[in-house]
Amino acid sequence: MKGRLFKDKVKIFVRAGRGGDGCASFRRERFVPRGGPDGGDGGTGGSVYLVAAEDVDSLVSLYFRPHQKAENGGRGRGKNQRGADGADLLVRVPCGTVVADAETGRVLGEVVHSGERLLVARGGEGGRGNRYFVSPTERAPRKFTPGEEGQERTLWLELKTVADVGLVGYPNAGKSTLLRRVSRARPRVAAYPFTTLNPVIGTVQFDDHSSLRVADIPGLIEGAHRGAGLGHEFLRHIERTDFLLLVIDLASSCPDPLDAFRALRGELGRYRERLLEVPFAVVANKLDLRGARERLSEFVERVDAEVIPVSALTGRGIPRLRSLLHELARGGRGGRPG
Length: 338
Description:
By secondary structure, the protein is an alpha/beta fold.
C-alpha cells in the first residue's frame, strides 16, 4: 500500500488582502439639491495568520497549495457607508511550526500550542472617502484615496515535532516496535533498516489519565549531524523534547552496544550541544535474541547511564519502561505533567 506523503519543510507565498478604495459620492435627497460629500471609506484587507492545529501533523497540504491569499477589502459607498472588511485567512499548520522569511532568513516566530496564531501578512488599510477632503475652499471635493496593498511574503515553514520524549537510535534498532508496545501509534514495522521514513508520534496513556507524547524519528547514521541520511531533517524533531530514550540494539550482528551508545551521544552533541543536557535513559532492546544477555551484562558494567533492558517483540521489560514514562508524565525527572 502506498504510504501517505509527509512534508516537514515547505516554501509558501502569502499575500494579504488589498484595502478597498474610498468613495467619491454626494448626498442626493429630495429638497437637498446641494448635499455635501458622503463617500465612505474602503474596508481593510484580510490578514494572513498561521494557526497551530493538533489534528494537522504534516505540511503536505501547503506543499500542494503554496499560494495563500486573503480576501480584499470592499470599496466604500455613498451615504458614508464603509466597505466590508476582507476576511482573514487562517492557515492551519502542525503544532511546532517555525516560520522564517525566505528572503532574509529571519525567523518571524513559531506556533507551538494548539490554537496559537502568528500574523505573517497584514492586510492593507482601506482608502478614505471624499468626505475627508472638505475644506473652506473646497466644499465639494471629488478626491478619494485608493486602498493600500496588502503585505506579501515568501516564507519557509519548518516543522519541529512537539513531543515529551524522543526515541533515538540507529536503523533497525527496534524503535518502531517499541513505540507500538508503549502507545497506540502504529508505525510500519519490518525486519530491515529505514522502515520509518517520517517522524511518528505516539501518545502513551495511563490509568490515572496522565499521558505524554513520544516521537520516533527515522534511524540515524554516522554523520547525521552533518546532514548524512537527512540527519538534520530528522534531528530537529527531537529539539523540543524533555527526555530522550536512546535505543541500543543488543543483536550480535550489530556494533558493540557501548560503541553505539557513544556514537549516538556524539551525533546529538555535534548537532546541538544542548541535546547533551537533556535527561536520558538507555533502552537496551532485543533481549530475546541469542547472546543478548551477555552483551547486556558487559554493557551495563561499562556505561554510566540508566539502562532498561527490554524485548519490544515479546514485551519483556516493557512494564518498567512504562513506569519510567509514567513518572515523566506526572512531572518527575524534569518531565512536563501530562
